[in-house]
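User: Modeling request: complex.
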Amino acid sequence: MSAPVQQFKSQADVVSRDLRHREFIQTALNNYAVVRDKNRNAFRNYPAARQAAAETKWEAIHHLDRHLEQLATRLEARGTHVHWASTGEQARDIILDIIRRKNARSIIKSKAMTSEEIHLNEALEREGFEVVESDLGEFIVQLRKETPYHIVFPAMHLRRGEIRDLFNRELNSGSTEDPEELTMVARRVLRQKYIQADIGFTGANFAIAETGMISITENEGNARLTAALPKTMVTLLGIEKVLPRLEDLALFLPLLATSGTGQPLTCYNTLYGGPRRPAEPDGPEEYHVVLLDNRRTQILANPEQRDALHCIRCGACLNVCPIFRNVGGHTYGTTYSGPIGSVITPHLRGLQEWKHLSYSSSLCGACTETCPVKIDLAHHLLQNRRNATQQKPSWPWKIGFKLMNFVFKRPALYWFVPKLGRIGQALHPIVKGTRLDPAYAWTRSRETPRIARQTFREWWRGRG
Amino acid sequence: MSAKDDILARVREALRVPAPRPGDHGDGATAHADTPPSHKAREYLPPAAESFDEQVAQFSANATALRAGFHVCNGQDELLRRLTELRDAESWKRVASHASSLTDAACAALRLPVLKTDAGYDVHALETCDVGITGCDALVAQTGSVLVTTRSAGGRALSILPPHHVVLARKDQLVRDLPAAFELLKRNYGSDYPSMISFITGPSRTGDIERILVLGAHGPKRLTIFLV
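Assistant: Request completed. Predicted assembly structure:
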């Protein structure tokens, strides 16, 4: 077994037994489901909105080359520097180069899952730069030296007492555990960081090809400040974020809010087209946009799973997934967790090492059903299983099918096998649930179904 | 080859095999319209009010739900009276604003030191202001949003840095829904867009601690909108 699968299994075992943790996460996600449904119902026709979103993203990806060129041309026309990065390493080098050229010391960041994907913070800190996450949840997990628990709610696994202890230890904030007071502690600390920072770094939710704009959705205002105060602004985004037209946002902004947090609209939905213009009083003097491939084109090259690039990172599939809800976000050991993470991580990091995530699914289809852009996640998990086995069949799998083939071709043997099974089952209780049990992986936590009293052939003969 | 050419070459190579359209199961049963799906957005988006009065009522209900203040003023005199009341209730000491006919009148009536951002400003000075008073491009009835740009709201920081953001909107700036707001942006700016365009929907908020709503995470704790 490879390291990721061992890590997944052992951590899943621990977390799924932690009933307090499960209850805490599930209560939060159940509350989310209530407001999500309320806002879905506010749509005149939610299924039609979903279909329109799926078609719009299909169009965006179907002409991705054209849209990317259009986006870059329009951004550059307004004085934005557009960079292209084939790999995470290239993206890190581009960003480090910008920082060095500006003689910068400190970087204020707003939430960006792409920066987690390319491990940007570690790279910047290794070079001696100060990096501060400004989204409250990200700030908390950064102080804890953890990765985000959830792509939309990074600190949802923590209780107020844990955040009080953390803030008191790191920021000397005293004994308050009131969420409002704790938020104000972070506000005060981060205010100074925005003002001092040399570089403002952001992610992106959408990129508008038609007008050459980056769209950022947030509730706190931290991205707004990140884009307003520092002299240099850098945005990192995956190439799949494009939307063809400006007015597409009239659908995608409410859809993202509804699916992501269960709001009608997120507090700040902001478009950035370039650096400060001559007549404008403030804003960055330089704006850099880094377009990241990092094996997204590999997903693109697979027409069967290409729609995984339609993902708007709302986290809706995580919130409904029975696996995510029981094993938690950190167990996955990936940047993107939940069903979408299980689908794309094998493409981003290697199928054989990450195929186990496609087996950690009940195939209930809740992810496919909830996805606002209609990605067929449940089937993509099955396709990953198929591809993994085709590429590298496991020996029990090979032997199992050879044996089945052998038995099925020989009627006498085929007749004998159920008899053997009944004898086996009669003897099974001697070893059942112990390590000597050949079916231990199953029986240590589950009952084995009983073999039928009568085979089909016996029934057929005796039907009278 | 540059990274740009590399990526675009990989994209084009990948797209040589088409993927089925969503809902298309290869049986030719699904017809797709030629117009982009966003052009029919009003058929499926949350409904928007039709008449002006209904739109005001819808905006007001949305603002209440978002915990923003919303006041309809009959003329500039009422606006100035309400603003001075707000000044006294919150004991403002310093005001930040930008030049426009409505904001200029408001600042004059408040009789407080005013920081104007138009020709650049000291960020520390802006940080000490109690309120940022701005104009806007539009109010969106459907969502309770305020549409601001660097041009209509005195730059990027004025509407986000001070703890209270006061928006002054004219009655003709109320639009029904998001599609109308994007039409307005295209009409007013064409190809010469401001460098920042923002839909502000309620005061800054977070739920990052135990999913409990807290206002004023990084941006303004309070948002008050006057429709004049």
